[in-house]
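Give me the fold.
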Amino acid sequence: MMVRSTHRNSGRARRRYALRRSASVEKEMPLKGRVREWRDEKGFGFIEPMLPGPAVFVHIKSFKRPGLRPQVGDLLVYEVGMDANGRTRAERVEFSLASKPPSGIRTPSARRPWAIPLAVISLSGIGAASAAGKVPVIIASTYLVMSLITYVLYVWDKVSARRGRWRTQESTLLLAGLLGGWPGGLIAQETTRHKTAKASFQAAFWGALLINLAVFCWLFINAFSLPGSA
């Protein structure tokens, strides 16, 4: 039994040594690969090497230029290193110049000068309706509080994206907007220029906004106007 254990341990040691030696050799020359999987909210993913071999783990902190967010399909140039547990990982990662412009670099979207006024007018209108007894105070308070919370969530996510920290999930931002925080979301998007260039997020955001407004209008017509509803 001890002989088997000794052989097994020596075999593991040889494999680990081979991995480290291979990684040290690869580290001398940059490799190329495409992003096969990327979990943006957690800041890591996997690269599919151009040469035959297993996928390589990559963390957002391994990118040379902080603040850029990769997407599936992006072509990367990287070196291979080892972590403390002997697992391979990508290091000194950058976007390949031979590829299309890095998807992590968002082309600035056009300014929306109407967005902040729309949010302010909406909040003011709900507040005025509440003061006039047309809308329950709890509803107006919910819009105000949720807008403040949503604004903070956007700012926090923007700062986390720049520093490579844990991100706020998009579903959380969308849910906050759906629950009445969309005015704060609009203000945050314009003041921080965050999430304004991602078409899929904007589509979901405006969908949540329209659902919220539809529910509010239905309540305003059918419930808030009933006697004693104020």
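The chain has two domains: 13-95, 115-222.
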